[in-house]
Design goal:
heterodimer, A: alpha+beta, Ubiquitin-like (UB roll), DNA polymerase, domain 1, 2 domains, 5-stranded mixed β-sheet, 5 helices, about 40% helix, B: alpha+beta, Aldehyde Oxidoreductase, domain 4, 3 domains, 7-stranded mixed β-sheet, 18 helices, 25 strands, about 30% helix, globular, disordered N terminus
């Protein structure tokens, strides 16, 4: 079976019914994606399939064929950089134990891709599937708002760089 | 088995009457030598067992505690660095190996002796005693909100100050000038008179030959430059890009995976399976029959789990197959009644005479409160990787007690403890669960059957159903009010007492008190659960105090104030909470406010919850939290812990309920053991009061107070008194006509 993960092609030899989570973690060694509940209740295993957040613990590997899979390891443009959301997560000192944070960030990333200025209600809707036992919710909320502003600024600067002005 | 409890340990303290403490990190006869091989790398000089200085002048602080999000890998190095006058930018952190030399005797001392000073001549003796004691019980624990309070205060600060002292002495010898002429700052030593400045590293070799003072002078809080600031935590960058290694992420050559099915009824035996039962399952390698569980080893976790689900696993009958939660409550009540009838209650607090007061009293109020069992549900399910060879065992796990794990594994494998090496990883949540070595024992027994490493992973269902639980409990109150509407007598009975010691105690000035408990053993395993006994007693006592205030026709905040005239620290915290929460200001219809005050693990916390009841649904809008931990060494980390503890306690108050049916846990996963999520998480405001008292804990003290603040707010909004948790089992309806 051939999978496209973080823009790299991997050939794996597994039962196609195996949940994507275990293929990513055990076959490919990308352990940033976490096992939390196995029934799509906690969001720790969130990855993107063609840009949309899914629960990899419930998604059979075969459902990801011919699709672009993105994990927490793949959201920065390269190994030496971090995505703006990840930078904000550090600036706001959001993670505690950190176990759920890959999933939190992947859900936040999906939200911010679709919505550049999310309201509290938007955040509630996009993030209520991600459980955090350390209770980092207030900081995650703050982080999303700050990241939204930072992403908007970055987009404006990019436009200016290209000579486009609002 | 080498079982221990923090409470049991307290009673083993044979050193009596000694006033001790401060200044015991380094025994005379520096133990650095013994651990040099374990921690020293290229170019490192080990100055004492808590720190090493590299030739490039970076300083590595050895932290004997596990990082589970509480920030201890940052805060403890801060305490050492500040006393050493080190440059924070050059500080590195290394978690101590699971080694006896790091058994945290500082914690043992803290629990036994409390924070007192002793003459330095006694330190060697006392220090030796505690190290021996902690080694014997294999205590290298992260829990009890103790890292800063004990390891930080007794080990880190003293080690930093002692290191500074010998470096200063070394510089003084080297330059042949008096120490008074030298200045220590930012990991350098200067002699302004001769315009010389050298990094610490220039003096470390000489310094190791000098004897370190056992009781160096420590800074006062006014002299702190690093303590009390909030530098970014060391562990966070790796937690935003998926690189942090938790126990479950360990990868070893030739490693295989195991899944397990344990007896749903605690203590029942599993019927062994034939080795051939897996012969038609490709990729599945072995069945391992354990006493109370069956495990399967396979090429991947998914295959192992599938095999476990398909195999015909059965368990023997046990004496507990019909036990339900109500049977347990009935047993508690019987045992409580019997204890009273026979006069053999375990006495906790006895002051004055409640009997005489109750005889005369005209206003007597009684109430009974209940809380159910609770599971920890750490986000990372229990797991452990083990490799067993003939002459030893290695385990990879996230543990709150690595040395205790090594000891337990050594015992079941019949090895010397030195032959078991624990590689501690980040913990995906601890909350007391990762003190228990059960999963490590299983992993070792499974791996013993094969010659490759095995990673055992529990499913979430295993995790919820095979936990060591915060116990269900019943608390019964009887109190009287005098003609001024003040509490004249307080009688409280409950089951079990673990710690913290002060959990059921009230800060209020009540002359006549009888607080007592009864043991009532069940087959349900007990474990430390964030804030332990305080997780329920704050709900019991602070709800009942609210009932008394209502009965006295007084405002619940003012009622508490009246009883705190001799407790200024409590009063200050309570007053600030009321002020910040706009106590007394009108709220919209269907809204309510509730207040609570509780001390645990040395930190006093007041909380005000602001809630709204909308068509039988509850919305928690805002929580104001005021805490006096004495001093917050990392204020942002302390604030994060307050937020964390509140959300954790709110989950328990709203939803937390483990029920027992037919001897087993009914709940299984997050759909029926519900967690507070983003949309239910209130706005939390934290305010820190600095009293410069001996530091209190951070990880646990905010958990207890949210349940009573919430329940009292519900009463304020609706007139409904919540006497049984969780709140989800109650029908709520706002009724503001009762209270106006």
């Amino acid at each position: 079976m051939v999978l496209n993960i973080n823009n790299e092609i991997y050939e794996v030899n597994v039962d196609p019914a195996t949940p994507l989570l275990w293929v990513i973690r055990e076959q490919l060694g990308l352990t940033g994606t976490k096992f939390g509940c196995g029934i799509g209740q906690c969001g720790a295993c969130t990855v993107h399939l063609d840009g949309l957040p899914i629960r990899s613990c419930l998604t059979p590997a075969q459902a990801a064929l011919d699709k672009e899979i993105t994990t927490i390891e793949g959201i920065a443009s390269n190994d030496n950089e971090r995505h703006i959301i990840q930078e904000v997560w550090i600036e706001e000192q959001i993670p505690q134990c950190g176990y759920c944070q890959s999933g939190q960030i992947m859900s936040a990333y999906a939200l911010l891709t679709a919505n550049t200025a999310p309201t509290d209600k938007d955040i509630d809707e996009a993030m209520h599937g991600n459980i955090c036992r350390c209770g980092t919710y207030p900081r995650v909320r703050k982080g999303i708002k700050r990241a939204a502003a930072a992403l908007t600024n970055a987009a404006k600067e990019k436009k200016l760089d290209h000579g486009e002005v609002d | 088995m080498g079982k221990w409890t923090r409470r049991a340990f307290i009673t083993t303290g044979v050193l009596s009457g000694g006033a001790l403490i401060i200044g015991v990190a380094i025994r005379p006869g520096n133990r650095a030598g013994k651990v040099r091989d374990l921690i020293a790398g290229e170019g490192d000089t080990v100055l004492n067992i808590w720190l090493k200085v590299n030739a490039d002048n970076t300083i590595t602080v050895i932290v004997p505690h596990a990082e589970m999000g509480q920030g201890v890998h940052t805060t403890l190095p801060m305490m050492l660095a500040d006393e050493m006058d080190a440059d924070w930018k050059t500080i590195r952190m290394l978690e101590a190996p699971g080694n006896k030399e790091y058994a945290n005797y500082a914690i043992g001392k803290g629990f036994i002796m409390g924070p007192k000073d002793i003459p330095s001549m006694l330190i060697g003796t006392v220090d030796g005693f505690f190290l021996t004691a902690t080694k014997q019980i294999s205590l290298q624990m992260t829990g009890g909100s103790s890292s800063v309070r004990y390891t930080g205060m007794f080990a880190m600060r003293v080690a930093g100050a002692a290191a500074r002292s010998v470096l200063l002495e070394a510089a003084s010898e080297e330059w042949e000038v008096a120490t008074e002429e030298l200045v220590v700052k930012n990991s350098t030593i200067s002699h302004p008179a001769s315009n010389r400045t050298e990094p610490f590293a220039s003096f470390v070799v000489k310094a190791t030959n000098l004897s370190q003072p056992a009781k160096p002078r420590l800074k006062t809080s006014k002299e702190f430059t690093i303590m009390g600031t909030s530098p970014p935590r060391f562990d966070i960058p790796s937690k935003v890009d998926g690189k942090a290694n938790f126990g479950i992420d360990v990868a070893l050559p030739n490693m295989k995976y195991a899944a397990i099915k344990a007896s749903p009824v605690f203590g029942a035996r599993a019927k062994p399976l034939e080795a051939g039962a897996i012969k038609d399952m490709p990729g599945v390698h072995k069945i391992v029959n354990l006493e109370g569980a069956i495990a399967v080893i396979a090429d991947g976790y998914w295959l192992a789990k599938k095999a476990i689900n398909e195999l015909p696993i059965e368990f023997d009958k046990s004496d507990h197959d019909t036990v339900g939660l109500n049977d347990i409550y009935d047993q508690y009540l019987r045992d409580m009644d019997t204890a009273i009838a026979e006069g053999n209650e375990e006495k906790d607090v006895k002051k004055g005479s409640i009997k005489n007061i109750f005889k005369e009293a005209t206003n007597v109020i009684e109430a009974e409160y209940r809380v159910p069992y609770l599971a920890h549900a750490t986000m990372e399910p229990m797991n452990c990787t083990a490799l067993v060879k003939e002459d030893g065992c290695e385990i990879w796990v996230g543990s709150q007690n690595p040395l205790g794990f090594a000891n337990s594994v050594a015992e079941v494998l019949d090895l010397d403890q030195e032959k078991v090496v624990v590689h501690n990883q980040y913990l995906g949540g601890g909350f007391g669960r990762r003190v228990v070595p059960d999963v490590a024992i299983q992993a070792a027994l499974i791996a013993k059957e094969v010659d490759y490493p095995v990673k055992l992973i529990w499913s979430r269902e295993d995790d919820i159903r095979q936990d060591h639980y915060r116990e269900a409990n019943i608390s019964r109150f009887k109190a009287s009010l005098n003609d001024k509407g003040q509490i004249s007598a307080w009688n409280n009975q409950f089951v079990f007492k673990h710690d913290p010691e002060e959990a059921p105690h009230i800060p209020y000035g009540v002359d006549n008190q009888f607080i007592h408990y009864t043991n009532s053993e069940t087959h349900v395993p007990w474990g430390y659960w964030r804030s332990v006994d305080s997780s329920m007693h704050a709900f019991f006592t602070e709800s009942f105090v609210d009932e008394l205030a209502f009965n006295a026709n007084k405002d619940p905040y003012q009622f508490r104030r009246e009883h705190l005239t001799n407790a200024p620290r409590f009063l200050k915290v309570l007053d600030l909470a009321a002020e910040k929460a706009n106590w007394g200001e009108a709220l919209p219809a269907n809204w309510g406010r509730g207040i609570s005050l509780h001390q645990s693990f040395g930190t006093i916390v007041a909380q005000v919850a602001e809630i709204e009841i909308v068509e039988d649904k509850l919305k928690v809008h805002r929580v104001v939290c005021v805490a006096d931990p004495g001093f917050a060494f990392h204020p942002d980390g302390f604030t994060a812990q307050m937020e964390s503890g509140i959300v954790f306690g709110l989950t328990a108050a709203l939803y937390g309920e483990i029920t027992i049916e037919n001897g087993a846990v009914k709940q299984s996963n997050f759909h029926d053991y519900q967690m507070v999520r983003m949309h239910e998480s209130p706005k939390i405001e934290t305010y820190i009061v600095t009293s410069d008292n001996w530091p209190g804990g951070a990880g646990e003290p905010s958990t207890p107070g949210i349940a009573p603040a919430l329940a009292n707010a519900i009463f304020n909004a609706s007139g409904i008194r919540i006497r049984k948790l969780p709140v989800k089992n109650h029908e709520l309806k706002a009724d503001t006509t009762i209270l106006g």
